[in-house]
Amino acid sequence: MTAYSPRLGRLIEALRRLPGVGPKSAQRMALHLLQRDREGAEYLARALGEALSGIERCPRTRMFCEPAHCGFCSASRAKAGQLCVVENPADLIAIENSTPYRGRYFVLGGRLSPLDGIGPEALGLDLLAEQLADGTVQELIIATNPTVEGEATAHYIAELARARNVKVTRIAHGVPMGGELEYVDGGTLSHAFAGRQLL
Amino acid sequence: MTAYSPRLGRLIEALRRLPGVGPKSAQRMALHLLQRDREGAEYLARALGEALSGIERCPRTRMFCEPAHCGFCSASRAKAGQLCVVENPADLIAIENSTPYRGRYFVLGGRLSPLDGIGPEALGLDLLAEQLADGTVQELIIATNPTVEGEATAHYIAELARARNVKVTRIAHGVPMGGELEYVDGGTLSHAFAGRQLL
């Protein structure tokens, strides 16, 4: 027998669908909302509804956007002639928040992984190829993650761009800023050494 | 400038009102719901709405309950003649889930703390006194937390019960099961030693 009433049980179950939330945290969140922040619960319910009804995938960048306010397709961004390819929306947000880059983006929504059935179509690479072919892109910046699949995806996309005479660059990988050589893993250090640059 | 569109920004802000959720987790949750679990987002919005409209505080136990389904006020629970006082709804749920106790409860919703302006009225102690006076309670079990304020609250409630000739008990405090004496704090160990029982 559980001590939860039906609606409380359902609220806890619903909160558990959030990533990183287990049964204890979900119970704590539900009781907190009911006990101390009913207004917050209303706000959250409303924000979820608004997000579901108003946020779509942009057909061009494949980022989440609101039709009336897509900040990533603007003419000023297109003018730069640069297109940055990332795996996920969170990667786009990280780049936008930490770098001065203000060109266009393309969100793959994953990486090539034939074993999981994720091929070029699932990542919208036909759409990317079209954009590379229309002559507006001078530089394609590949910012996929430096994992095995991310590297394979980067290689595949680089071939797409070269076939259309677009310059391709890849963000640098090496020792992270503030890191200490002693504690950096061997693969990263070897990569950083091989990729040394003239000062 | 932030990379969030207005609705995405509001969803992240709303998720941050959940306890233990910072800006990074809130962003992760929002993107997860939009990207991989729109159904879960709908379910959560619905569950929040249902909880807000259907969950009330029981006027008798002060626990969250649904008028059509209050599991804590039933006649069978009243028959036991026992009333357990806890600080918070989460404490009630913990007792209900881990112990065979199936008597009645009273949820204070806090503890006496004059400095924060929390007096007997805020904890509903007048309501508790009424229930103690109506002759249905043979034993009052005090399960407030063993903190300074929790102990003070327990003391105050014990006086209330004694004045109405109701037997008062307090849940045992001592070395936790599976704990090792070596690592238990001094206060707990001293309490456990003083409270030794005949085998």
TrEMBL record, chains A, B:
UniProt cross-references to InterPro entries, sorted A to Z: DNA_Rcmb_RecR, Rcmb_RecR, TOPRIM_dom, TOPRIM_RecR
A GO molecular function assigned to this protein is: DNA binding
Instruction: Kindly give the Pfam families that the UniProt entry links to this protein.
Output: RecR_C (PF21175), RecR_HhH (PF21176), Toprim_4 (PF13662)
Biological process per Gene Ontology, one example term:
DNA recombination
Coiled-coil residue windows:
none
Residue ranges annotated as transmembrane are none
Query: Domain Toprim spans what residues?
Result: 81-176
Q: Which PROSITE patterns match?
A: TOPRIM
Please explain the role this protein plays, according to its UniProt record. Answer: May play a role in DNA repair. It seems to be involved in an RecBC-independent recombinational process of DNA repair. It may act with RecF and RecO.
**PANTHER family, alphabetized:** RECOMBINATION PROTEIN RECR
What is the official name of this protein in its record? Recombination protein RecR
Native source species? Stagnimonas aquatica
**Taxonomic path:** Bacteria, Pseudomonadati, Pseudomonadota, Gammaproteobacteria, Nevskiales
Gene that encodes the chain: recR
